[in-house]
Amino acid sequence: MKIVVLNGSPKGDISVTMQYVAYIRKKFPEHNYEILNVAHELRKIEKDTAAWNRTLDSIRSADIILWAFPLYYLVVCSQYKRFIELIFERKAQDAFSGTYAASLSTSIHFFDHTAHAYIHAISDDLGMNYLGFYSAEMRDLLSDVERKRLETFASLLFTDVQEKIPVQRENAPLAWPAHVYVPGKAQKTLNPGTKRVVILTDSDGGSPNLLAMTNRIQNAFSGSTEVINLHDVNIKGGCLGCCQCGYDNTCVYTDGYGDFFKNKLVPADIIIMAGSVRDRYLSSTWKLFFDRSFFLGHTPGLEGKQIGFVIAGPLHQIPHLKEALTAWADNGRCYAQFVTDEVTGAGELDGLLDAMAGRLVRAAETGYIPPKTFYAVGGHKIFRDSIYGGLRLAFQADYRYYQEHGMFDFPQADLRTRLFNAILIPLTWIPGFRKKVFADMKHHMIEPFKPVLEGA
Asked: 185-216: b or e for each residue (b if 16 or more CB lie within 10 Å)?
């Protein structure tokens, strides 16, 4: 059986993910393996027709395609994303259709599920038979238990392919909004006062609705609103995963991205991100923007910003995309709002865009940021523990930031609660005391709030 591995790491063979593939290869040597470093060699594949055709020939020869990748900002890296875009742009779906597929990732388990949901949906769109995913923590291969788990996954996967089991598609084809948006005349404009508004877009003329929506929300504000097209920003390439920025937040690239981020976005109060759906995400240009912001590591580089997402395309048919963008904002301690062109007509969209502009200004004026949800609370705990432990050497800038901002808030550091538990828990071993405590538990839970309410 031939297994073609589409390597989604910009580091090529020198990647953690490929060590997992190497282990599978070692344990199942009876199969034929071909590894295609499509992320690492993206520029060649994109520009060299012969290289592109050789890639497709290899894919056509596969019994199973293994999408293998590290996690980059809640989905795959921008280089891998661009490779996937090329498949659809060049109408090469037939090379994948009917072939079995699975995905394998390495990460610290922060939003690995959205990455695999994306690959699953892409596999469905390509007419593949998707058999599931394996999400490894980066160091799992060092564990006897996890190596056995990986072997079992591969064994079951190969058996399913050999037996040619039927697979049901889980992601319905996307249906784009049919209407062409022609904005109406704005009834009034908003004065953001001293609040700085920046609109980011990746518009390349391919989506008339995106351009019209961007113009409409720009015109909703009076005064100066800066519009920046990401295609005009000097970005030499995608994140390389080299982690050199981890020491002092200095990217290995010497292009314009860092200055653009620090001088245009950090001073802004309101940032509107306008993009159109490309396959099951935004464009690879937008993914490039998100990936390169990792020069700030696991710190909230845009903390306190009001974020408006203006999306052309079927956002609400792609739950993992909405979730990824929401989680990005929540973890960055921002407030995100969404408007898409999935509406009945221009009048409705006019009203939604105008309303978004108003809400963004009011939230900026009050400095309102919603409470953290599971996305940010869970993300903080994952990052906190990793940066304190296994990632400390690579991400020393993160470690310093977390120390300075009191973000190493481990439960054992709460001495008052530890003392409370140390005294009260042994007392609950006494049946009479335990009965009294648990009988009054509802009242005990609300007791601390009484002084607040009485003093309000």
From this structure: ebeeebebeebbbbbbbbbeeebebbbbbbbb
Q: What is the pLDDT of residue 456?
A: 63
Are 6 and 143 in a shared domain? yes
Does residue 10 belong to any structural domain of this protein?
A: yes
pLDDT > 90 in the chain, percent: 91
Q: Phi then psi for 254, rounded to 5 degrees? A: -115, 65
Q: Indicate the pTM of the whole model.
A: 0.95
Domain range enclosing 7: 2-162
Q: Using CB atoms within 10 Å of the CB of residue 297, give its burial: 0 to 12 exposed, 13 to 18 middle, 19+ buried.
A: buried
Q: Is residue 207 part of a domain?
A: yes
pLDDT (tens digit per residue) in 256-306: 999 999 999 999 999 999 999 999 999 999 999 999 999 999 999 999 999
Residue 313 forms part of a structural domain = yes
* Number of domains the chain contains: 4
Same domain? For 301 and 391 the reply is no
Token pair 């390389």 in the structure block, residue: 240
Q: In angstroms, what CA-CA distances link 185 with 191, 212, 216, 345, 359?
A: 17, 12, 9, 14, 20
- pLDDT tens profile 185-226: 877 788 898 999 999 999 998 999 999 999 999 999 987 899
CA-to-CA distance for 271 and 201, rounded, in angstroms? 11
Give Cα 166 to chain centroid, integer Å: 31
Q: What is the mean pLDDT of the segment spanning 74-92?
A: 97
Residue type, 94: D
CA atoms within 13 A on the CB side of 163: 10
My answer on whether 379 and 418 are in the same domain is no
* Same domain (yes/no): 396, 348: no
Give yes or no for a contact between 3 and 31, defined as CB atoms under 8 angstroms apart: yes
- In a shared domain, residues 360 and 378: no
362 and 378 within one domain: no
| CATH number of the structural domain spanning residue 145 | 3.40.50.360
3-state class (DSSP) for residue 125: helix
In a domain, residue 104? The reply is: yes
> Rounded to whole angstroms, how far apart are CA atoms 6 and 250?
30
Q: Give the residues across from 102 on adjacent strands.
A: 66
Q: What is the pLDDT of residues 109-121, one digit of tens each?
A: 999 999 999 999 9
Name the band, by pLDDT with cuts 50, 70 and 90, for residue 426: very high
Quick one: pLDDT at residue 292?
97
Classify strands 129-137 and 64-70 as parallel, antiparallel or unpaired: unpaired
164-175: pLDDT as tens digits: 999 999 999 999
Are 43 and 120 members of one domain? yes
241 in the same domain as 108: no
